[in-house]
Amino acid sequence: MPPLPDALLPVYSSKRVTADEFAALCEEHPDMHAELEVDGRLKIMSPVGGLSGNRENEFNADLTLYARAQGGKAFSASTGFRLPDGSIRSPDAAYLSDAQLSQLSPEQFEKFIPAGPVFIIEVLSVSDGLREAETKMRDTWIANGVRLAWLADVDNQRLWIYRADHSVELVSPLDRTITGEDVLPGFTFDLNLLA
After folding, report:
1. CA 60, 66, 101, 37 torsion: positive or negative?
2. What is the distance between the terminal CA atoms of the chain, rounded to a whole angstrom?
3. In angstroms, rounded to a whole number, what is the distance separating the alpha carbons of residues 150 and 152?
4. Residues 112, 113, 116, 119, CA torsion sign
5. Cα 136 to Cα 168: distance, rounded to the nearest angstrom
6. 146 or 30: which carries more pLDDT confidence?
7. CB atoms near residue 73 (< 10 Å)
8. What is the dihedral of CA 30, 146, 51, 125, to 10 degrees?
9. For the chain, what percentages of helix, strand and coil (3-state, to nearest 5) are there?
10. Per-residue pLDDT for 9 more than 70?
11. What Cα–Cα distance (Å) separates residue 83 from each residue in 33, 89, 106, 158?
12. Is 164 exposed, middle or buried (0-12, 13-18, 19+ CB in 10 A)?
């Protein structure tokens, strides 16, 4: 089968699987990059290009430094979160608070984390659709308890801030420093790093 053009990715399975079947599939194929939709379909995604990967890393670097200094833990795009709606998602960057971490057993921590992060970041890559990303921010992340979420569309100099109260704020152009507000007190990120 020839490779699929970027415009066709991600690919969704027609077969439905349970969360346990998805976990077993991921153990069998550890290099597969996929998420489990709330309806049981697999969403299979391609790796991101270098530019998107670097942008994700810039966010993750600052989030990791914040967690080291303030507590909690930061997680990369490879981490799966088992959300209350039954889906399993992997944001580009995520943060769990100390209070959330204290509720997890060592066994739970070794698998998909059975909790929604308090903060997540998604970075649009060339294969991502904006409408689908916006829906995911509202209907997946915020609906499953994320208190603060950033959606970065760096190529178009836009970043949306989604909050638990369902407000959305657009930041454009990406020429300033933004904060973690009351969710991550003291966390700042200089959007100029994404250029």
Report:
1. negative
2. 36
3. 6
4. negative
5. 13
6. 146
7. 19
8. 80
9. 35, 30, 35
10. no
11. 17, 7, 18, 27
12. middle
pLDDT single digits (tens) 111-135: 899 999 999 999 998 777 899 899 9
**The Cα angle at residue 101 between residues 59 and 190, in degrees rounded to 5:** 15
* Model confidence band, residue 4 (pLDDT cutoffs 50, 70, 90): very low
Average confidence (pLDDT) over 87-104: 96
- The residues pairing with 184 across neighbouring beta strands, listed in sequence order, are 180
% of the chain surpassing 70 pLDDT: 94
Report which secondary-structure segment, H or E, holds 74: strand 73-76
CA nearest 80: which of 19, 151, 137, 10?
19
The tokens of 10 are what?
């991600």
Residue with tokens 């308890």: 145
Place of tokens 């801030």: 161
Query: Which tokens belong to 166?
Result: 């369902």
- Count of CB atoms situated within 10 Å of the CB of 82: 21
* pTM: predicted TM-score of the whole model, two decimal places: 0.84
List the beta bridge partners of residue 154.
Answer: none
